[in-house]
Every structure is written in structure tokens, then in C-alpha cells.
Amino acid sequence: MKKVVIDINIFMDFLFKREGHEKVAEIFKQCIKGSVKGFSCAHEITTLNYFLNKSNREKGKIKKTISGIMKRFKVIAINEEILTRALSSEIDDFEDAVIEVSSKEVDAEYILTRNTKDFKKSIIKPITPEELLVILKNDSIENNKKL
What we know:
The protein is of the alpha/beta class. Helices cover 59% and strands 14% of the residues.
């Protein structure tokens, strides 16, 4: 099972039906089925709530959306140790550095993001949804060959 930390832009693609949201939906289905373990950092959940509120969605729908995300994806708690380690990251953007350190904390293989360039210096490999789907397809082919 692949372990991926999902950057907020991926959730935004899906929820706001931005370009590429269909690929994200495929990955989320894999998370729900259990072939991918998806993680999100706690601070991304609060930021996502902020953007959903700014989009004038009903409060009840926003709570249901956030609740659904928290049920389907493991939320990584952000604490002082993670924040301190992020300050020492090679990544310039602090929020991205927090994602990197959090990813290491849960032994994630990848950071799923639209902005791979933001994670060029990351110790965890950044990949796009399209790249992850290719990896999952190749894994599936390899597993079928073993049977």
C-alpha cells in the first residue's frame, strides 16, 4: 500500500472541480478502497475550511465535507517538534516544509501535489496525481504477474 500526504491543492482541485479533478477522484477512490493510504496535515484542514467558507457554501455542507475528509484520510497532528524541524528544512516555504516533515513522520512515500517544484528540495518525493496513477497501474500489473 502506497502512503501519500496530500497537499491542499489536490483537495481544492477535487472540491472546486478544477482542471484534473477527475484524476484526483480516481486516487481518492483508491484511498477509500485501501490500496492507498492518504494523509493530510491538520493545518491544511483548517485552511481548506477557510476556502470553502470564502466560496459561500452552506455551513452544514462545509462541515459535512470536512468531516468526510477526516473520516477518509488520516490527519497528521502538527506539534511544536514538527514546526521546529520544518524550520530546518531545505524547503524555503514554511508551510511546504511542514508538509515535508509531516510526511517523514508518517513514513510517506510521496507528497501528492500539483506544485512539485515547491518540493524540489524535499526528502519525500513530490508527485502529481497523474504520476501516482501511473505508479498504481504499474504496481497492479506487477501484482497480477505474480499471481
